[in-house]
Amino acid sequence: MCRHLGYLGPARSVGDVLTGGPNSLRVQSWAPKDMRGGGTINADGFGAAWWTPDGVADYRNAMPIWSDPAVETVLGGIESTAVVAAVRSATVGMPVERSACAPFTDGTWAFSHNGVVFGWPDALADLAADVPPTALLRLQAPTDSAALWVILQHLLRDFEPEKALRELVSRVRSTSPNPRLNLLLGDGTTLYATTLYHSLAVLDTGDSVTVASEPLDDNSRWRLVDDKKFVRVRPGRVDITDLE
Ligand code: GLN
Q1: Is ligand 1 within 6 A of the CB of residue 94?
Q2: Class of domain 2-113+180-242
């Protein structure tokens, strides 16, 4: 299953966020350490979202991250205080295309899903029925993750982010058998994440915080997040609570 990462802190180049550390997100694309049976490598594209004074900007590519020189030549020259990024391993039967690569953005939020909704699309039909048709028609790709994003956007209209994510996880768990739902949502100042059958780690240095599927380096302050947790972080502030 895919790997994802969120960073908040002093301005850094987006390229550096993707490639920093001996187990960087880029390294995790070809040599991930903790996939928990969900695939082997993450070669089906990648994406990065970063915040600017005007909102969220993003770059996505359906090619493996290691094959794209723009990681250095373009993203290396863009600085931001907040980044959400992902490398993708497409679930069997789901297309490999740019629009299926996380993060999914909407001007305010950036969202990534590491996992799979078993029984998709039927398992999401009831939840999708609550979403206005116009929003459904804007579905970016025929994948479980893109559908989760449309449903989450709808929930974010009624609930604050933590409640929206908890609702999403609980509703999907009621219709899909043992879904794998490591979700990551950011608004540029706070990161929200869930663990459900996949790995996650947090590093808080006081002035910056990183949430990543796997520790990016051997810093002993990485905290491994247990399964079925809700994570809410800002620099200097890490809250980890039970998901259920
Ligand atoms: N199921 C999602 C997709 O196909 C996420 C894949 C993953 O986490 N490996 O895009």
Answers
A1: yes
A2: alpha beta
